[in-house]
């Protein structure tokens, strides 16, 4: 009799163990996959919710941006794609809406004094006297053949009243975001736009930050 009880007791434990293992497996299958564990090519943004970027599998990346808007994503080989975002890192402040380029693989976005940001395209006026001091056009996507990123073609007023033209490119190289001034003609980027490989960001008017 004791032996039968032991066998029955073992059978109950075995069944409980099997049930627990089955529940654990079910949980691991149906639990949302961690954003760091997915194939970079599988990430597609579907929209934003408050300060979060939403991917099509339900995962979210929480930014620290107010008035957040998603623009596009830049392809990578091993990292989560770089997200092109607009917004500001404070509320009730004098900071302009800016462009941010960030991959969730690099962790959380940094605080405002450490996080790299870029100016919006359009016209920039001096907040003190209203003088026009900069004019910019910006494009994103495959800016040049096999080169993805964001490029700014800009003219800025120097201290002598001369308009100085320059081109700045923030591009992806080896899954790293690198930015520098380059020699480039806007016509080469417009060719990419005509092929629907690159796209222009709409311009806006802003005042310089006090």
Automatic annotation (TrEMBL):
It comes from the Bacteria. This is Uncharacterized protein. It comes from Reichenbachiella agariperforans.
């Amino acid at each position: 009799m004791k032996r039968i009880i032991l066998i029955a007791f073992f059978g109950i434990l075995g069944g409980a163990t099997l049930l627990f293992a089955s529940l654990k497996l079910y949980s691991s299958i149906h639990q949302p996959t961690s954003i760091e564990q997915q194939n970079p090519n599988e990430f597609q943004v579907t929209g934003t919710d408050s300060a979060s970027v939403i991917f099509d599998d339900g995962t979210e990346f929480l930014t620290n941006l107010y008035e957040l808007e998603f623009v596009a994503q830049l392809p990578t080989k091993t990292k989560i794609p770089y997200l092109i975002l607009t917004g500001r890192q404070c509320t009730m402040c004098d900071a302009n809406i800016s462009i941010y380029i960030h991959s969730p693989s690099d962790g959380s976005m940094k605080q405002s004094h450490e996080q790299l940001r870029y100016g919006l395209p359009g016209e920039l006026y001096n907040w003190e006297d209203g003088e026009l001091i900069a004019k910019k056009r910006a494009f994103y996507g495959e800016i040049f053949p096999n080169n993805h990123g964001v490029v700014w073609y800009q003219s800025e007023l120097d201290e002598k009243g001369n308009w100085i033209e320059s081109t700045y490119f923030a591009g992806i190289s080896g899954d790293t975001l690198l930015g520098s001034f380059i020699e480039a003609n806007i016509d080469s980027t417009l060719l990419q736009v005509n092929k629907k490989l690159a796209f222009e960001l709409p311009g806006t008017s802003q005042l310089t930050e006090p």
